[in-house]
Every structure is written in structure tokens, then in C-alpha cells.
Amino acid sequence: MSNVDELEIDKFSQLAHKWWDKDSEFKPLHEINPLRLDYIDRHASLAGKKVLDVGCGGGILAESMALKGAQVTGIDLAKKSLKVAQLHSLESGVPIDYRCVPVEELAAEMPASFDVVTCMEMLEHVPDPQSVVRACATLVKPGGWVFFSTLNRNAKAYMLAVVGAEYVLNMLPRGTHEYARFIKPSELGRMARHAGLGLHSLSGMGYNPLTRIYALNDDTDVNYLMATRRSAE
Questions:
Q1: Among 93-107, 176-190, 212-226, whose mean pLDDT is lowest?
Q2: pLDDT, tens digit, for every residue of 153-208?
Q3: What is d(CA 207, CA 29) in angstroms, rounded to the nearest whole number?
Q4: In angstroms, rounded to a whole number, what is the distance separating the alpha carbons of residues 33 and 35?
Q5: N or C end of the chain: which has fewer CB within 10 A?
């Protein structure tokens, strides 16, 4: 059974041409990118590392990690988004290896091949997030890092991430998120442990709508980042 929701793929494909427009629907991703890049780099020291970005979209995070000196592969199943990523890579001169392949298939092809694996804002868009977490764990080398970011599932997250962001502030297109697919940190932590990943740190991501500034904090009620690590064998 394929771990793909075609409606989710179509949703992002329709917006693919806007990935690098910092005033478009992808503005929030551009605004949080320095925060998540710093979080990853502080833990894993990206320079010289072989990195996989799962669900890379138009390549915002992938390019920024490459600029830190990493050798980056980006995978996604939205072909239009990948084409945008490839074109931007050519324009910017930042080399990225982009592939249209399911993460589970790549895990079977290239186990224990990457020093760092990132999976940002992707788990809440697939039917079986546990399958993705397991594949990420398979792809990372022993001792390597796997980073996840997603949305918590509670009333506060619904009000801020769905009602607030999509319907009040119009920060995201309506229908971007399906609340039932949000994942509690305890659930993601359990998925990671079952996949052989140890939880290293958990941080919330807060947004101030007045200053339009994102910052890491201890509040994981809405958006959160999780750093996990595969044990050295």
C-alpha cells in the first residue's frame, strides 16, 4: 500500500510556482527556515555531512543546508515542486540532488547512507507517519541525526494553526492542514523509539503575529521540533 495522499500532493502542486516567492502562501516557511536550520546545525554540525531532506518541496531548507556545507539530497513526490526546486538550484548555483521517490523506497535502496535526515512539516500530510519515521531511521547512519517538525494535536493547535493561520490571518491557504492528522509529541516520540531513534531534544516554535518573529521556546502546544539520534552500533 502506497503511503501517499494524492490530494495532498495536488494541493502543493497547485502552488508549486510560488515556492520561492517570500510574500506568497509559503511565506511562513521562509520565515521559520533560519530557525529550523540553526536548530539542525547546532545539533548535527552540517558542514561536510551527507544530508537527506524528506518532503523537500521547493527546496527552501535543502538549499540552506547546502549553503552550510552539507551534501544534500532532497526527495518529494510532488513533481511540480521538485521541478521548481531543481530550477532554483540551477539559478542559485547551489547543487542539490533532487529525486522523486517515496522515502520507504529510498530506505530499501540506501540504508544507513546519511549522516543527517530531516523531515519538516511533512508527517501531518501522509496517511502513515510511522512508516515515514521508520524509513528515516533506516536511512540514517548509526550515530546519525534525524529531525522532525510537525503540529501538536489539541484545541490550541486547532485554533492557532487552522482557524488563526488559515482563516483569520490568511497566513496559509485554507485547507492546508487536516487537524485529525496532527501528531502529539508523545506520539511522535513513541514512533521514533519504535524505529530505534533516541529522543535528544524537543523544542516549541512560537510566532508573534505583531512582530512577525518566530522563536524557539519550551511551548510545544502548537508547532514543535524534535531532534532524535540513531544509536551507534
A1: 176-190
A2: 877 765 665 544 543 445 555 556 566 678 999 999 999 999 999 999 999 987 77
A3: 12
A4: 5
A5: N
Cell 523537500 appears where?
56
Side chain identity, residue 56: C
Q: Is 55 annotated to bind ligand?
A: yes
Instruction: Tell whether 36 is in a known binding site.
Output: yes
Q: Name the maximum alpha-carbon separation found in the chain.
A: 49
Structure confidence by residue, pLDDT tens digits, 115-166: 999 999 889 889 999 999 999 999 999 999 999 999 898 777 656 655 445 4
Give residue 204's identity as a one-letter amino acid code: G
Q: Which of 117, 96, 140, 120 is nearest to 46 (CA)?
A: 117
Domains of the chain and any CATH numbers: 6-230 (3.40.50.150)
Helix pair 27-44, 60-67: axis angle to 10 deg: 40
Please state, in angstroms and rounded to a whole number, the distance separating the CA atoms of residues 227 and 189.
10
